[in-house]
Automatic annotation (TrEMBL):
It comes from Insolitispirillum peregrinum. It is found in: Cell inner membrane. This is Inner membrane protein YccF. Keywords: Cell inner membrane, Cell membrane, Membrane, Transmembrane, Transmembrane helix. The chain crosses the membrane at residues 5-24, 30-51, 72-91, 97-115. GO terms for cellular component: plasma membrane. It holds the Pfam family YccF. It comes from the Bacteria. It is a multi-pass membrane protein. The keyword Transmembrane applies. InterPro entries: Inner_membrane_protein (IPR052937), UCP028777 (IPR031308), YccF (IPR005185). Residues 5-55, 77-127 form the Inner membrane component domain.
Amino acid sequence: MISLLLNIIWVLFGGLLMALGWLLAGVIMVITIIGIPWARSAFVIAIYALWPFGKEAVSRDELTGRQDIGTGPLGMIGNILWFLVAGWWLALGHLGAALACAVTIIGLPLAWAHLKLAGLSLFPIGKTIVDRRD
């Protein structure tokens, strides 16, 4: 119940805007054709950025116990390219939103979620979103 309330507040106070930023990054990647492998990550994280409470980002190799193309050396190269093209500006957006949310005590959980997304913004390849087990 608390996750639902936080998600509703999140959407109203900046979550929708940041999810649209992730969606825009994904669309731009698809348009470039060579960015299609990065677009999938952007679309998955756009949904996470829209409704983050009750979910978490984890490395796919930790979840499955085996490496795949996104968690190995090619994933690392992909993350470096992502950082240079889109990761830094998405991270800056989340950092700005975190700062705005942290001004009030009520906004601290939202700021914390933005900080987690800022870190994810830098290197999203090889990550997946799962329900959090509390």
